[in-house]
Amino acid sequence: METQYVGKRVPRVDALDKVTGQAMYSVDVELPGMLYGATLRSPLAHAKIVEIDTSAALTVPGVRAVVTGKEFPFTFGHMIKDQPFLSIHKVRYVGEPVAAVAAETEAAAQEAVEKIRVEYEELPAVFDPRKAALDGAPIIHEDLGKYDHGNVYELVPGTNISTVMKYSRGDVEVGFSEADEVFEDEFYIHPVAHTPMETHAAVVQYTPSGKMLTVWSSADAPCQRAKDLAKVLSLSFNQVRFISTYSGGGFGGKGAIVAEGIGVALAHFTKGRPVKVIYSRQEELTASQVRLEAYLKLKTGVKKDGTLTAREAEIIWDNGAYSSKGPEVARRGTLTIFGPYRTPHLTLLSRLVYTNKQPSGAYRGFGTTQVTWACEAQIDIIAGKLGIDPVEVRLRNFYADGDPYINEQIMHTAGLRETLEKASQEIGWGQKKPKTTGTKVRGKGIATTIKGTNTPTDSYCFIKVNVDGSVTVLTSSVEIGAGQKTVLAQIAADTIGVPLASIHIPNPDTCSTPFDFGVTSSRTTYHMGNAICLAGQKVRRQILETAGEILKTDPERLTLREGEIIDRDAENQMTLKELMAKKYGGKGGAIQGEGYFTPAGSSLIKAKPGIEWMSSIFWMWATHAAEVEVDTETGVVKVLKIAAAHDVGRAINPIGCEQQIEGSVIMGLSNTLFEEFKMEKGRIMNDTLADYKVATTLDLPEIVPIIVESHHSEGPFGAKGVGEPALAPTAPAIANAIYDAVGIRFKSLPITREKVLAAIRNRKP
To answer: What pTM does this model have?
Structure first.
C-alpha cells in the first residue's frame, strides 16, 4: 500500500510544544487553592511504629492536613496488594513514607514534616534476596497469604518469597547426557535507577461531595492506575479520573503508583483542595522504584559443533519491600533466559523475594535486560571453550520462521539472522585487530536478544472528523517521550487519507478517552496502531459514502488522499472540509468511528494448551555489536562504537526507531559501566546525581542504529515494536568485548574501572 506518511522521517508532532515550553508536565499543573505536599520517610529499614506525634506539625502556619497510615489505612499494588499509601504498623525500607503534610507552601510543608516525631522499635532486616529466601530469615510481610493477588502468582506464605515460577520442557538430564560439554556459571545484575529528567510528580484532588478523585500525572497506564485506585478505595471507575501530562522520562518507572499515592492520601483530608506532590532527586533515587537485581545460575549442555542440547536456569530476583510489577517480571520476563535459541530440554525456577530495600518494579526491558545479560555472556563463554566464532554459535541455534517456541507457538517474522549479520558487518567482525598502542587494548563483542509483548491485551480508540475537516483521535495511549503521538498520527493520516497536520491527539483523560492497557511492553504501535487502523477505515468508508450521496456517484469510484476526494475518472471533486460543510451546513456535526483491537483469537499465538500465556503476538529481535578500548594501566573502558540492529516489523517513523535504539544504547552503556547504588544497612548513600554516576555525552561512543524490517502480517502496516529490547543486548556485548580485549570475564555488573583495574592486576600470568 502506498503511504504518504508511514515509513517516512516525520518530525514529531509535539516537538514545537516541547521546545517552546508549552508542553505541560505534572510539575506545571497549577489549580486554584492548590496545596503542596511533603513526606516524612523512615530512617530505618525494618521497624515497628510504636507512636507518631503530629501535634507540633499541626501548629506550623499554613498547614492544612497531616496524615499517617492510621488515618488512611489502605494498601495498593497492581499485582499483589501489599503496599500501604503511608506505612501503617511498620516500615519495611529506608525511605518508606510514614506521614505526609499538605500546606499552603512547600516550605511550610517541609517545616511541618521535620516536626513530626516517630518512635520506632527496630526489627532485624535482610538485604540479600538469597538470604531472605532461606528458612529462619526475618519475615517482612507476615500477612503475605492474606494479600489480594491475581491467581497467576504463586505466593509462599510464611516466607519472603512472593512469587514462584517453574517451567520445564523435555528432560534436561537427557539433554545433559547428550552434550559433549556442560557449562555452569553464575551471574549477577545490579539494581539501577530510572533516572528520568522529570522526577515523579502528581497533583491530586478529591471532591468529597461526589467522591470524585482526579489525578494529574504522567503515569504510562492511566486506565490501569484508575482501575487500581477505584478498587482500593471502593469507588466506581467513573469516580477516578486520570488526566495525563507529558512525561519527562519514565523507562518503566512511571508505570506504578508513586507520587500519586502520597497525593491521594493527602487529598482525602484537604476538604476538596488539590495537592501537588513533587519528588526531590533524593526521593527519586531512594524512595521511588529501581530495576530488579537478580542472581542467576545457568547450566547449559552443548555439542562440539555448538548445538545447544539443554539449559537449566535458576533465578532469584530482589523485589525490595513491595511487589509493584515484580511478579510479572519474575514470571514473563524470566522466560528469555533461554535466549533466542532452539533448545530441546529446558527447566527453570524463578523466585521473587522480598528484602528490606527500596521497591523494585518495571524497568525498560521488563526482565529481558537482566536475563539477556546472563544468557549472552554464557553463550560467549561456550563459544570460547569450543573454539567457535561467537557469531557462528548464535547462527547455529537461532530461531527462524516456522520454528516452535518453548510453548509450541510457531515463530513468525523472526528477523534475528539479519540483525546478526548487519550488526557484525557494521562493527567489522572478523577483521584483524589494530596493533596495541601503549596500554590501550581493543576488543569486540556481540550479543542478541528476544523480547515478546504482553499477550493478549486490549486497545480502544475513537476517531472524529470535525466539521472543518480536521481529525481528532482519542486514545488513552500516553506520550511518554518515545514519539507515540507521532506514530499514531501517521497511522491515522494514511488510513483515513488526510494530511498529517490535520490530526490532533489530545493527552489521555480517562473521563473521556477509551480504555487502553497502557504504554508498556512495547505494545503501543502494534495494538493502538491496529485500533486506529480499524477506526480509520470506518471513518474513511463513511466519508466516501457521504461523498457518493452528495456527488450522486458510486462511492467505489471515489478515493480520499491528503484530504482530497477524487473520482477515478475525473479531477478532484471536493475537499474533505467542503464535504463536511455540505453535509452538515452551519448546524455542525461529525463523522465518527470506533476501533477496538485485541490479538486474542489470532492463529499466530496458538500454542500448547495451558501455557498459551507464554505466546507473544509479535517477537522483537535484536543484536548489538560493540568495540571497546581498555586501558590496562587505569582500568578505564572506553566504548568506541556500538552497532545496534533491530527487527521492528516496519518502521512507521524511522527517525523515531533510531532515536529509541540510540537512547537505549546510552542507557545500557550507563547501566554497564557507571551506575551503582552504594548501600549501608539499607540506606542508599549516593543519593544525588553528583554521586550516583550516569553516562554523560563525553562517555558516548559512535552509535549506529540499524533497522531491520520483517513486516508482521497482522501489524499496522507491518509494524511490531522496538522500545524495550533495544536496551537488553548492550551490557553483554560490552562485557564480551572487554573479554576479547583483555581476556577477563566479568559475570557481575556494573563493570567499573575499579573492578577492571583490580582484575587486571590480580590476573594470573
So the answer is: 0.96
